[in-house]
Write a structure and sequence with these properties.
Shape: globular
Number of strands: 19
Structural class: alpha+beta
Number of helices: 20
Radius of gyration: 30 Å
Oligomer: single chain
Strand content: 15-25%
Helix content: 40-55%
Distance between the termini: 79 Å
Largest sheet: 8 strands, mixed
Mean pLDDT: 83
Low-confidence stretches: 432-458
């Protein structure tokens, strides 16, 4: 404690009296806490008065080995920098928002004569109109399907669009107007795109009235087929609106935040409203010290939440976040326009917040219940395997390949809170050789630690498991030798029988690891699920009753590892298939390859192309065109 106070007192002597951000670091240089201050010197000085600090901050000061600062022009800039650093560094003593996925949007592309409607994640770099965010991919997919029915917009890729000679299935099921084969003019299609854009921008009533008039006009002309088409489009729009759950007058672009805490755990429920429509909701469970006030947690959460997301004009909250006006000013600067944070007390907006609060309470109750059940399962697993304590971190390993090709290993992680998907890892097997390759023929990418595995035939599950475990734990020994970051497992489960377990034991013996429990799980005869045997070092296999909850838990762990490794293997195999014979043509890099595929649509079409056709592609010179032509047309 005295050492930490001494570090801060020495740093205070040179601290400026202006706004900025400070970082408290431990002896390894890792961030313990990131904070903002209007007056750096005064704020850091407050940490030296230990009697006024809660126990949480006293512990933080005791661990502090150094202090780093960044000065800013204003406190608003300091808040923006703080939220960015907290999200990037994940300091232990800050509120941590674990938000691994970007939100999906609907994109109406703007770089093609016939705009495409598609789901989009990531940066808004492609020209076009973006609508969202939506709370889930399912909400986007349902909306796009309804919009296709309502406005008959294409969803196919530009290359597929260019190569069509007849309409696809989407036209026949009345979800596209087939602009690819000129069944609709560019002018008429542009009108459909405008209607879709207007609908997504909140002018749905006008669009529905327009379609209603068109339907009536067609009916009066006895053009019942056209009238039926307009009727179906109106039904599709009504379907979208019927899935909006709740809509509030006066709430166009807004996010709603409702916080509920219980038992030291907090749930923050976020609802998204855009153009007057409810785009869904999502529950978050930020990690934080239970001594923090709800206002502190909410303020830190909101600041981090918008670090990589567009900010709407209005935020509705169940209670006031700390430094509400400062937070609003910071978000306004980020949004490039005025942002208001409002805590409604009555009326429709308060009812909306109360609805979100009810969802937060229910989500937290489910979360706590799942946590209690998970804890019981972990305790049961510890009893079954003879562990001293319930494991806090379990790592499960599995391998996958197809007759030796595209071999992958995978690690999944589970703990008291369930599966920790942001900590899953896949391993592209480096050391195995393909059938027929001479022993000792090591891939150039092979690391030193993989040499032992390099002599194995492709498809050798033992060698693959040895390589994966060696790479994983050699890295752990290098990056976190004392397990101060919590990256070491308490239990390792490997898929397989006694042989796989022995491989794991050999790896641990070679690396000098003796404090991690090991077990393997193998399916019964004929791969019968429910008759799994659990292998432990120097013990007879354990066969649990079919209705044992611990057996179900082990099956879930094993199946999740299998699902993840199969997905990795399939993706690798797909990538391998995508490697076309174009890659074998000298001078054809990614840019020229893309240009050729966009122009011709497929490698087969490129192979059939005449020399003059190849020369007509942007970026393809006569010399390169000749190389491509000769490559596909050379004898033998």
């Amino acid at each position: 404690m005295e050492r930490g106070v001494g570090v801060l007192k020495r740093a205070i002597k040179t601290l400026p009296g202006q706004p900025g951000v400070y970082r408290m670091l431990n002896r390894k240089g890792e961030a313990l806490y990131v904070g903002k201050a209007r007056h750096l010197k005064r704020r850091v000085t407050s940490y030296t008065q230990l009697s006024r600090l809660p126990y949480r901050l006293q512990r933080m000061v005791a661990e502090t080995a150094s202090l780093e600062i960044v000065t800013t022009r204003t406190e608003v800039e300091a808040l923006l920098l703080e939220s960015n650093l907290v999200k990037r560094l994940m300091p232990r003593y800050n509120v941590q928002l674990r938000d691994d996925k970007s939100f999906p949007y609907i994109l109406l592309t703007g770089d093609h004569d016939f705009a495409r409607i598609k789901k989009h994640r990531g940066q808004h770099s492609r020209p076009g109109d973006y609508f969202g965010p939506f709370a889930s991919a399912g909400a986007v997919n349902r909306t796009i399907t309804a919009l296709e029915k309502a406005f008959l917009l294409r969803s196919c890729s530009d290359s597929v669009f260019q190569q069509r000679s007849r309409p696809c299935l989407m036209y026949h099921i009345k979800r596209c107007s087939a602009p690819c084969v000129d069944y609709i003019s560019q002018e008429d299609y542009s009108q459909l795109v405008k209607q879709a854009r207007d609908f997504l921008s909140g002018r749905s009533h006008d669009i529905q009235e327009e379609l209603g008039r068109e339907m009536q006009a067609a009916s009066e002309k006895l053009d019942f087929e056209t009238a039926a088409l307009y009727r179906d489009r109106l039904r599709a729009l009504a379907h979208i609106q019927s899935h909006q759950d709740i809509n509030v007058e006066g709430v166009t672009d807004a996010d709603v935040f409702a916080l509920h805490s219980e038992g030291g755990v907090t749930c923050i429920q976020v609802f998204f409203f855009r153009s007057g429509r409810n785009y869904g909701n999502r529950a978050y469970f930020p990690t934080h010290d239970d001594q923090l006030s709800s206002g502190e947690v909410l303020a830190s959460f909101i600041a981090q939440f918008y670090d990589n997301k567009p900010v709407p004009k209005l935020l509705l909250a169940s209670e006031a976040p700390d430094d509400r006006q400062l937070l609003a000013d910071a978000l306004s600067e980020r949004a490039g326009g005025k942002v208001y944070i409002h805590v409604p007390q009555r009326g429709d907006k308060r009812n909306l917040v109360d609805h979100a609060l009810t969802n937060a309470r229910e989500a937290l109750a489910r979360h706590l219940s799942e946590g209690r059940n998970q804890r019981k399962l972990l305790e049961g697993l510890a009893e079954t395997l003879g562990l001293e304590n319930a494991p806090e971190r379990i790592e499960v390993y599995d391998n996958s390949h197809t007759r030796g090709s595209e071999p992958y290993g995978a690690m999944i992680v589970a703990g008291a809170e369930g599966f920790r998907k942001n900590q899953y890892r896949k391993f592209k097997i480096r050391g195995t050789r393909k059938p027929g390759q001479q022993a000792g023929g090591i891939d150039q990418r092979t690391d030193a630690e993989d040499v032992e595995a390099a002599g194995a035939e492709a498809g050798d599950d033992y060698a693959m498991m040895r390589e994966v475990l060696t790479r994983r734990f050699q890295r752990a020994q290098k990056e976190d030798p004392d397990n101060e970051q919590g990256t070491w497992p308490d239990l390792v489960l490997v898929d397989g029988g006694r042989g796989q377990l022995n491989v794991a034991l050999e790896v641990f013996a070679d690396l000098g690891i003796s404090d991690v429990a090991l077990a393997s799980v193998a399916k019964g005869p004929d791969r019968d699920a429910g008759r799994e045997r659990i292998f432990l070092p120097e013990q007879q296999p354990i066969l649990l009753p079919k209705d044992d909850q611990v057996l179900y838990f082990i099956q879930r762990l094993r199946d999740e590892a299998h699902r993840f490794v199969i997905g990795s293997h399939r993706k690798g195999r797909s990538n391998e298939r995508l490697r076309s014979s174009l890659d074998d043509v000298p001078g054809i890099g990614p840019t020229r390859k893309k240009a050729l595929l966009l122009h011709f649509g497929s490698v087969k079409a490129i192979g059939r192309a005449h020399l003059a056709d190849l020369e007509a592609v942007d970026g393809i010179s006569k010399t390169v065109a000749r190389k491509i032509y000769d490559h596909f047309n050379s004898a033998g």
